[in-house]
């Protein structure tokens, strides 16, 4: 593969090859470089497996004849009613069934909603060439360690954020850098036999990023001049007018707070937000504060980012175990817990259960993040607990200590104007975000000929003349319950049982079928008069048990004989429908 770099004067060269550059090699119709346009080319199928109508779980499949190209493989976080569920990942049954046709897997960046599902998916698939930038693969390798996966079982291939790769006969991908809240973030120009498909990746147009590396908009402009058949673009902030603030604005706001703080400063944000972490380290250094890292994912991600050269600090970052003899006004903590997770560092600090640190009056806490939908209540609870501790608390939108990593309306319109796609697919957002992005596109001077608001699992057929839905695959969700260092899938019946337990309670009936039959009942969460209720249930169950023994019924039949009359009685006596667990054993 040829590596592309931009020299002074805007010219591009393919390093050490003498071959045409990415720009020179592109065919006029946007097809696969090096191939003549195919007048009889078949349609390309675009299949969103996750990320449509939701925030998270991002994953696409592009299918042309006997080849499939995959893009990303992320996770999402559960709703409040998904009791005991830790994460959600896309259901990839269709990918598993067609694994032999998958020629490559490209990763746009290292955020959890784009790579967090991969450890679960890769266990189900053979080796597939997987292309990602240095930090993206570094974070992915960190996840492999966590999940005890061997890198030798995968085929990771490092690329730059400005590189062209020929994945297969029909798919060639141009990466182009886009600013976001993490380094090494890319959009994609996918060259196919029928034309170019541009995938924006997550982005905002930050002209003052922490690393000074701005978006490669010239590649988008060039693609637009040569013809973009379809654009898939980030819709997260399609409802927000104007421009998304820069990371520099967040740094300035945090610096003002730190400059006035007389005690300890505790800052929480996403552990993968490397740009922001770098800015916070610079603020700490400016005010002579030592940076202390607290929280498992924060420790892991800062270590990886430092080892790969994406995070710089004048003094070593230390853990709470290594923190010794630091005055309150000489320390700044970077910790986990921005989403109110119960076991994360900030939640334990707020509740007073942290083993090493206790908050005190004079401390300053900065929440540099917005709650992910569904986490608002948990974050609000942490903020209230922090106020109760008497500390100074700063959080958005009251204070400008957070900026989204996603483009607002004026930036979205610029991408539409640069690419001028024939067809448009709003992506990465809930339905309201997709529809508002659609409306923006319709208002452009040169609007797309057709816009499709898709759902996960839609099979979209893209030809040179149309984009339409032609089918559906099973693209549901896998619910994951992480238990210690293991994880397992949670099925819908388990969720229903947990919901019943939380709202209706449980009744456990233990029946001994022997010469002296007996019944013991335990109930929880059903009635305040549980002793009286348990006695009534025991009488009903014992009567059913004795009758079943007289009639020489099987133990499973006796269990049913106990279950149904007990359920009827509970409904009549309490109006509830608790989980009933009858067990019959021979004695």
Automatic annotation (TrEMBL):
Offer one example of a GO biological process linked to this entry.
rRNA processing
Where is Zn(2+) annotated to bind? Answer: 109, 111, 113-114, 180, 202, 428
- Name the cofactor(s): Ca(2+); Zn(2+)
Q: Where does substrate bind?
A: 271-273, 402-406
Cite the entry's keywords alphabetically. Answer: Calcium, Cytoplasm, Endonuclease, Exonuclease, Hydrolase, Metal-binding, Nuclease, RNA-binding, rRNA processing, Zinc
What is annotated as the active site? Answer: 234 (proton donor), 406 (proton acceptor)
Note the CDD domains from the entry.
RNaseJ_MBL-fold
Q: Which Gene3D superfamilies match?
A: 3.10.20.580, Metallo-hydrolase/oxidoreductase, Ribonuclease Z/Hydroxyacylglutathione hydrolase-like
User: What do the Gene Ontology cellular component annotations say?
Assistant: cytoplasm
> Where does this protein hold Ca(2+)?
84, 86, 481
Protein name, as recorded: Ribonuclease J
Chain's gene name: rnj
């Amino acid at each position: 593969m040829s590596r592309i770099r931009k020299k002074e004067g805007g010219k591009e060269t393919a390093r050490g090859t003498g071959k045409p550059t990415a720009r020179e090699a592109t065919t006029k119709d946007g097809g696969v470089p090096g191939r003549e346009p195919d007048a009889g080319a078949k349609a390309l199928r675009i299949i969103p497996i996750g990320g449509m109508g939701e925030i998270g779980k991002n994953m696409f499949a592009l299918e042309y004849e006997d080849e499939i190209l995959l893009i990303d493989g992320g996770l999402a976080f559960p709703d409040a009613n998904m009791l005991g569920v830790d994460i959600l990942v896309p259901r990839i049954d269709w990918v598993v069934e067609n694994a032999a046709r998958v020629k490559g897997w490209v990763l746009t960046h290292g955020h959890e909603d784009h790579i967090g599902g991969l450890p679960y998916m890769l266990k189900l698939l053979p080796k597939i060439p997987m292309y990602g930038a240095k930090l993206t693969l570094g974070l992915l390798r960190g996840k492999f360690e966590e999940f005890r996966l061997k890198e030798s079982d995968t085929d990771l291939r490092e690329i730059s954020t400005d590189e062209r790769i020929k994945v297969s006969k029909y798919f060639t991908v141009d990466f182009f850098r886009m600013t976001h809240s993490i380094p090494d973030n890319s959009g994609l120009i996918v060259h196919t036999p029928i034309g170019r498909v541009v995938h924006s990746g997550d982005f905002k147009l930050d002209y003052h990023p922490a690393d000074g590396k701005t978006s490669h908009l010239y590649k988008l402009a060039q693609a637009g001049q040569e013809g973009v058949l379809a654009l898939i673009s980030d819709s997260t902030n399609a409802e927000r007018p104007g421009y998304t603030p820069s990371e520099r604005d967040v740094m300035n706001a945090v610096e003002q707070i730190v400059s006035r703080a007389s005690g300890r400063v505790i800052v929480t944000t996403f552990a993968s937000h490397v740009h922001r972490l770098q800015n916070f380290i610079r603020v700490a250094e400016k005010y002579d504060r030592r940076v202390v890292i607290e929280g498992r994912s924060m420790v892991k991600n800062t270590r990886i980012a430092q080892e790969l050269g994406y995070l710089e600090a004048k003094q070593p970052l230390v853990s709470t175990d290594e923190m010794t003899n630091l005055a309150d006004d000489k320390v700044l903590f970077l910790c986990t817990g921005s989403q109110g997770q119960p076991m994360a560092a900030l939640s334990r600090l707020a509740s007073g259960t942290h083993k090493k640190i206790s908050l005190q009056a004079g401390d300053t806490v900065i929440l540099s993040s917005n709650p992910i939908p569904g986490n608002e209540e948990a974050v609000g609870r942490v903020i209230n607990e922090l106020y109760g501790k008497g500390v100074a608390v700063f959080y958005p939108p009251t204070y400008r200590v957070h900026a989204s990593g996603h483009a607002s309306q004026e930036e979205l319109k610029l991408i539409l104007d640069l690419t001028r796609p024939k067809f448009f697919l709003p992506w990465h957002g809930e339905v309201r975000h997709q529809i508002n992005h659609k409306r923006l596109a319709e208002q452009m001077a040169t609007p797309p000929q057709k816009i499709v608001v898709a759902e996960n699992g839609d099979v979209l057929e893209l030809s040179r003349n149309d984009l339409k839905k032609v089918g559906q695959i099973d693209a549901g969700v896998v619910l994951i319950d992480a238990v210690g260092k293991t994880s397992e899938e949670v099925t819908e019946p388990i969720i229903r049982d947990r919901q019943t337990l939380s709202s209706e309670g449980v009744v456990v009936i233990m029946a001994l079928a022997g010469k002296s039959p007996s019944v013991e009942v335990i109930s929880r969460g059903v009635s305040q008069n549980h002793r009286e209720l348990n006695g009534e249930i025991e009488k009903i169950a014992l009567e059913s048990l004795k009758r079943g023994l007289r009639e020489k019924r099987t133990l499973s039949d006796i269990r049913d004989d106990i279950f149904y009359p007990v359920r009827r009685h509970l409904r009549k006596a309490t109006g509830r429908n608790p989980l009933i667990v009858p067990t019959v054993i021979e004695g």
